[in-house]
DNA sequence: TATGAATGAGAGTTCATTCAT
DNA sequence: CATGAATGAACTCTCATTCAT
């Protein structure tokens, strides 16, 4: 499920031979390494080529420009994460709400935790270039997967499913990102995960039609009493 | 409450005279305009100076470099937002938990909504330079303010207050950022706010010692039954 | 009478200060020198800057690119030549046809001969880039000037003035160019000039209405005899 | 009648086999196509090879470099044109002067008109590289052919045949080139041809010894009268 | 002999910053 | 204090050419 790309961001040639494949792999890997090490300001095409052990010309045989290289890199990572989350969501269809809740939170954090440094580096890179479409594409995939899972979950219909999905996905992905971006909070990731699981359960539970109903009743009763 | 800065990022001279103040103001304003208009790649010191109507030399009289300029700009915006949230939190000390919850969410979103375009532009700018300390500074202020508010809130002690603060602040700030960054979700900001209010109430409620206790009891009973 | 230019070819700033003027002059002069010495393949912006004794950055302050630099250079030379020819044509209005003929040929060759090496160098340079508009602009000016001169000349109306102008101008400018481009013919320029004067006189004389008429009569008589 | 070439410009191998011939043909054809389509700046060896349907390595088997490729291409076209003009000149030996005049002009313009776009493209290409020898070679052939024709023409001996040949050939070839190079004059090629025929006849007629003599007599008489 | 992946010197251009005026 | 011409290191990207397969 690749997002449509403009020509400027398309890969120049598909590496068919084994040698080519290795080259592309080396370039992408070198890019991540540089991103991790020196930040995005130290990321130059010549440095990438040198680190990858190829000539600058070779790099440009496979990527039409620096932007395209980063685009490919970010796309690949986001796709990998999206895949993982999608699989988890599909595996939990028709399960109890709490299990569904945990499934999304855990699979998302796991995906990001797989290579946390890389995740951070790519976050930064993607913000600089115009890669909103990539991010949007991933968010859209998450929305679909989560929506389908919640729709089929045991133990609760939602009054406004789309709104819940929007908010939950934003809170989980955004919150995780926030934790990742601070050097002094990343150590507390396990704590964050536990709390995020609890927050999600509580939120979803409270957004169920029955819960909403109860809440309304409670409010009305309270008003009656206060009269 | 200014964050500590290295010399490289310090403003060169405190503009005491009225004319100087106007110059600094013009430069900062021009920077935002360019950021909004052309993105961070079109942001050059020469362009800023021209747009501000001053010479490039003058710009360097007040800022030791481009980085410092952006640092000042971002810091100012973050400070403004932090101030607003701090005030709201202080105003709600000793109030019921739900009110506290709403206070933080609403004040934070309001602060960001004041000039949403500028917020987005500055997000991008701050990511490129090494401004983690600014972001961290803001987050630290929010943590303190929220912690104090929750600590004094009616209706609940928290078993692990710091963990709750960490998670809640991350989810609210990160979630909001996520909504802001997508062109197609920003329109649904009102919906997001409503849901985020609900999510926050549910989470805080569920993190109360009494709630946790009830939950434990429920689990134990369930286990007893299943025996 | 400047030709309209696209933004890409426009000079970046008009040098108002004396220092700037000198810089621009130095750059243009250096460009010609390099063109003369090494041909167009040795013409790089960095070499130009070095030869001009300025930094590469300075060059780009005044010209948005290499193309624009050459454009300005060629335009300036063509304008100078056009001016000279225009003046000569205007000075010979209402003179005998032979004098008019000589005026154009001589003024054109003189203009090109002023700095023959530069002329050759710029011919080459202009061919590479898209400077047809400059050449066309000059040709158009020549057409107008020559037409006005011939229209007012003593001793002959032309049956098809525009056609004569087109052809004469092409033959004179093209022929001269041809002589300039060969190393071994440029030495014979004086001979060429003499012959071109004669060719021009003969052509214009023969294109006069009276000459054409005589010619027709002669042909008809010849046909009568052959019957 | 090939011009002498340096090693660098020599074709690497004479393609004797049919397959080789086809390859060379394809490469040369592809070169023209690219020249016509994208101009000389879009002409790269890799693109030529791809368009020709051969690998870049194969291209270098037959041509030692890009320059040699263009050299061969231009040489071939110039040779073709030269052949045509030579044939025409030889066919008109011992004919009346007017017929000789027409023969050269018509055969030259016809040769260029055969594929006007290609002519223009090759003009540009040849200017960039050091192909003066090719152009000179062609001009030399034309000089010889025209000289021989005029020498044997009925109705006139020339006082300074070589000067006439130099000038006439320059005017015809240069004038034609000028017409070809402007987009807005190429449409008037037929008109130009007619006028060039007339100009040539008039010039040659006037360069005849008898004509020159008459002219001298006329001038002397005029001087006598004015005494 | 044909292939095409790899090469790398060098091209044009930008932009944060300085300093003589 | 303000100016803005000048700087030049560093950047992205091209393309003629080679050579292992």
UniProtKB/TrEMBL annotation, chains A, B, C, D:
Q: What does the UniProt keyword field contain?
A: DNA-binding
Sample GO molecular function, one term: DNA-binding transcription factor activity
One Pfam family of this protein, by short name? TetR_N
Annotated HTH tetR-type domain ranges read 21-81
The positions making up the signal sequence are none
Q: Say if the entry is tagged with keyword Magnesium.
A: no
Q: Which residues bind DNA?
A: 44-63
The keyword DNA-binding is assigned to this record: yes
- Top-level taxon: Bacteria
Q: What is this protein called?
A: TetR/AcrR family transcriptional regulator
